From TrEMBL:
The chain crosses the membrane at residues 12-34, 105-127, 148-167, 199-222, 261-287, 307-333. This is Peptide ABC transporter permease. One of its GO terms (cellular component) is plasma membrane. Belongs to the binding-protein-dependent transport system permease family. GO terms for molecular function: dipeptide transmembrane transporter activity. InterPro entries: BPD_transp_1_N, MetI-like, MetI-like_sf.
Amino acid sequence: MQEFNLKELGKRAIQLLVSLFVLLTVTFVIGRVLPADPVGAIVGELADPAAFEAMRQRLGLDLPLYQQFFLYIKALLHGDLGTAILTGNPVMQDLSTAFPATLELATLAVIISTVVGVPLGMAAAIFRDTLIDRIARVVSLVGHSIPVFWFGIVGLVIFYAGLSWVGGPGRVDTYLEGLVEPKTGLLLIDSLLAGDMEVFWSAVNHIILPACILAYSAMAYITRMTRSFTLEQLNQDYVVAARAKGASSSRIVVGHILPNIAVQLITVLAISYGSLLEGAVVTEIVFSWPGIGQYMTNALMIGDMNAVVAGTLVIGLIFMVLNFLADLAYVLLDPRTREAG
């Protein structure tokens, strides 16, 4: 049994930590040099100078930047991300409430984009230069070219305002809000655990359009990359040999090509998932989705940099961890990246 390349994994883990520290440093500095004024948001623009100065000292904004950064790191190591000006709650508490909504939306989006994008990409490669291939390429081009917010607005106008096929903005109908206890924070799961099917179907009705809109851009990328990977494999000798032995196209795809592109697909899906978590910001604004994107946007409007920096760190950390897990998948699934024991 071959052993994992632990040295290589250790190097990548160190790279992850270094990247996280760089992200933390850059985000903190940008948050402090932006012209936003958190003191004014707290005490009010008409407060007297003494109140301004007292609040600046209380927030530590009168200290040199390096001291502010040191104190922030020290608090961060103790799990303290500061207090949000927007809500008056600890930022950690706000994020624990907002992030599950983003996670639910992005997870459903990546499932939809994978279920559609992978088969479409493989079909486009197998039936190259046919109608299926042309459709796949047009779908990918449109998905890369048109902004998500435009799709979101058009989707609301057509499917919500025009046809009434889906729910409108928000996560659930207003009269159903707060009826289900948030055990996991994922409303679809929580409503099922509570046995409240009215809330469940309302949540499905509200999430399906933003999830599909968000999934489309990821699907375009997944389709294009899957097509490229499959085309590369179709030219390999083992495929030619399988065809010569009379293997059907479906058997070649499922039994030979798919296992050989699995590692590459994992990387693509990991990148797509991270991008969906990051790109959900625009979708959440369009659909008034109460996730981390909308939370950060509202915080940025009033200069609440504790909330903005913390939200950026959370999304950045998840993106880095997903890439690390993709690297780990290479070690686990690709024999060329393992060393003999």
